[in-house]
UniProtKB/TrEMBL annotation:
Pfam families: NHL, Thioredoxin_8
Residues of the Thioredoxin domain: 5-152
SUPFAM superfamilies on file: NHL repeat (SSF101898), Thioredoxin-like (SSF52833)
Matching PROSITE patterns: THIOREDOXIN_2
Keywords: Repeat
UniProt-recorded name of the protein: Thioredoxin domain-containing protein
Record's keyword annotation contains Lipoprotein: no
Domain of life: Bacteria
Length: 674
């Protein structure tokens, strides 16, 4: 039987140091004030989809053990924008974080606890000693075993103090919309006003007012209110609402005050072609991100239904290794039973005229999926599941939290690849073969605000993309607070607008609602609104530099580097060795020349990598995975049939600098101790 991960030496926890505290009513906390509680440090950054998954994983534990467990979010930013205290406060409100958060912009506490990846969890016992160090997501089951053990141990010692924690709720700041995600234009004849006309003057489904000007309306994912809102072209008149506004998951009536349907942070949405919608029986496909599902909405009767996804986050599934020895992941059909397929944080959707399917930005697995509304078929279109920037054949490509999609006139799909701060493109030929290209962007840790030739241009965590009337591409450059333009004809980047509050989507408005010229509609998430933005005749040229994520560089020596990833299955789980070694490492580097030998994918969590003496510094990209299953072992030590199984996985990007006296070994914790 496996044992809970516990330290064999008593390691005192380091003090919590940062710029400021949030969710404490203005009070600063330290470890002494938390003595007597089990403290769970969650090292996170608000751009990171894996960190958002962990927030949701921890909520049931926080509720169950509210009198003894204090979670402290240590916000250690990756991007420059994330170091802005105003942006952090908005993120804490947006993601409904109900525990104290330490603002750690200089990574002081991050370094003190030797965190190397987002997310990282550290458990501190009531006496102030570290008892567990965990990387990645999927650790809730292990924590649910560890926490009761700590409770029993420290109640017996008299060192556990029960009572309320230090969390103080902040004041809410939103209005009709709360952190809207994406928007969709509904032409006259497809929205609620058309329904009203068709029903001989009766009230449309979900309608609160008739603000139609005959030019159509806008359907918005009101993400923070867990619903959809249909607005008139003035962006103020509410024509209809869909969803009860209560976070959750439920199909059924979604319109107006009688709605029972529930969503959980809905994001992207797409209007199906009329002929497809007529056959499918619904009009809109919605990326219901935290529910890990695709949902459908009928604008005719206001009914919501589930189209794809079983609600189980895809990253936590077991099964064959996702990547083979050549780095190629599985691409292809996942079957015609869409309600049995696991998805992971679908973030945006777009209709592909070449694939005759809805294309899905599956942010949680760093892949692009497709869904056929007529057959229910779900497939992986591109991305092998590894996080990063790699072009080429679809099944070998890497993405990083893709969050925005748009189709151009040639049927190619443009992708806002947020974590690489990149603009990517899926080139789809007439046979449906997909090749991945990058227009703007360099890698996971490169960002900035720079216009000019695309090879030198930089974005910062873009979330939205659309095609402009002249065929160029507009990008919602979210963390730069700007709308950028990429011109494929000359390969240059410029700036169309700036000074926006985290724009999360951008769409071209051809209705002439505010004049004869087409305008941009921008979803300004942190101002809780949609705004019209003119398309300037002359774009701006901005150069505020290129940046890299600043994290401590690990000194290593040239030559052999012994790489060890530590993993111990939680109590009640066993490594799933029924089909061989259930662990796997993939190792690569930037630049590729840094690794002379030892790169690639193979089983096991130990590897010797030879580093080149000719490359002074770089980044080691390491992906580790381990599969373990629940249940007591049988007499012969085998895993019981039908046991629930779990996949533990983490991607690290380790900056290294080569020095003669550098380390010759590198130890990482997937689930273990420093």
């Amino acid at each position: 039987m496996s044992e809970t991960v516990r330290t064999h030496a008593r390691v005192r926890a380091s003090e919590l140091v940062g710029r400021n505290w949030l969710n404490t009513g203005g009070k600063s906390l330290d470890l002494e004030s938390l003595r007597g509680k089990i403290v769970l440090l969650d090292f996170w950054t608000f751009c990171c989809i894996n960190c958002l998954h962990v927030l949701d994983e921890l909520r049931p534990l926080e509720e169950q053990y509210s009198d003894v467990l204090v979670t402290v979010g240590v916000h250690s930013p990756k991007f420059e924008h994330e170091a802005d205290p105003v942006a952090l406060a908005a993120a804490v409100e947006r993601y409904e974080i109900h525990h104290p958060v330490l603002d750690d912009p200089e990574l002081d506490t991050w370094k003190a606890y030797t965190a190397r990846a987002w997310p990282t969890l550290v458990v501190i016992d009531p006496e102030g000693y570290i008892v567990a160090h965990l990387s990645g997501e999927g650790h809730a089951d292990g924590l649910s075993v560890l926490i009761p053990e700590l409770i029993a141990e420290h109640e017996a010692k008299g060192t556990l103090h029960r009572g309320s924690g230090p969390y103080v709720a902040p004041e809410a700041t939103s209005g009709t919309l709360r952190f809207p995600g994406k928007a969709l234009f509904l032409p006259a004849g497809r929205g609620s006003t058309a329904i009203e006309a068709a029903s001989d003057g009766g009230a449309p489904a979900g309608a609160a007012a008739n603000g139609s000007d005959g030019k159509g309306s806008w359907l918005v994912t009101d993400t923070g209110h867990h619903r959809l809102v249909e607005l008139g072209t003035d962006f103020e008149t509410v024509l209809a609402t869909y969803g009860s506004g209560t976070k959750g998951y439920a199909d059924g009536p979604s319109a107006g005050d009688d709605a029972t349907a529930q969503f959980n942070e809905p994001q992207g949405l797409v209007l199906l072609p009329e002929d497809v919608a007529a056959k499918a029986g619904y009009d809109v496909v919605i990326a219901d991100s935290v529910n890990h599902r695709l949902r459908g909405l009928s604008l005719t009767d206001g009914k919501a239904l589930t189209l794809a996804g079983n609600g189980v986050q895809r990253l936590l599934e077991t099964g064959p290794a996702r990547v083979d020895e050549d780095g190629a992941g599985f691409s292809g059909s996942l079957g015609n039973n869409p309600l049995e397929v696991s998805l992971s944080s679908p973030w945006d959707v777009v209709w592909s005229s070449k694939l005759n399917a809805v294309v899905v930005a599956m942010a949680g697995t760093h892949q692009i999926f497709s869904f056929d509304p007529l057959t229910g078929a779900v497939a992986i279109v591109a991305g092998n599941g590894l996080e990063g920037l790699l072009d080429g054949p679809a099944h070998e490509s890497w993405f990083a939290q893709s969050s925005g999609l748009a189709e151009d006139a040639d049927g190619n799909i443009w992708v806002a690849d947020s974590e690489t701060s990149a603009l990517r493109k899926l080139v789809i030929d007439d046979a449906g073969t997909v090749t991945v290209e990058t227009a703007v962007g360099k890698g996971l840790f490169d960002f900035g605000f720079r216009d000019g030739p695309a090879a030198e241009a930089r974005l910062q965590h873009p979330l939205g993309v659309t095609i402009l009337p002249d065929g160029s591409v507009a990008v919602a450059d979210t963390y730069n607070g700007a709308v950028r333009r990429y011109d494929p004809a000359n390969g240059t980047v410029s700036t169309l607008a700036r000074g926006l509050a985290e724009p999360s989507d951008v769409i071209v408005d051809h209705t002439g609602s505010a004049g004869d010229e087409p305008l941009l509609v921008v979803v300004e998430a942190n101002k809780h609104q949609l705004v019209y933005v003119p398309i300037p005749k002359e774009a701006q040229q901005v150069d505020e530099g290129a940046s890299q994520t600043q994290r401590p560089k690990s000194p290593v020596a040239a030559g052999p580097l012994e790489l060890t990833v530590r993993f111990t299955a939680p109590t009640g789980q066993k490594l799933d060795d029924r089909w061989g070694d259930p662990t796997q490492l993939k190792v690569s580097s930037t630049p590729p020349e840094l690794i002379v030998s030892g790169g690639g994918t193979s089983v096991g969590l130990l590897r010797t990598v030879e580093l080149s003496p000719d490359v002074p510094e770089g980044v080691l990209h390491i992906t580790a995975r381990a599969a373990a299953c629940d249940g007591p072992e049988t007499e012969d030590g085998e895993i019981p049939d039908h046991a629930a199984c779990h996949l533990y996985q983490q991607d690290w990007g380790i900056p290294v600098v080569l020095q003669a006296d550098g380390d010759s070994e590198l130890v990482l914790d997937l689930r273990g101790m420093d």
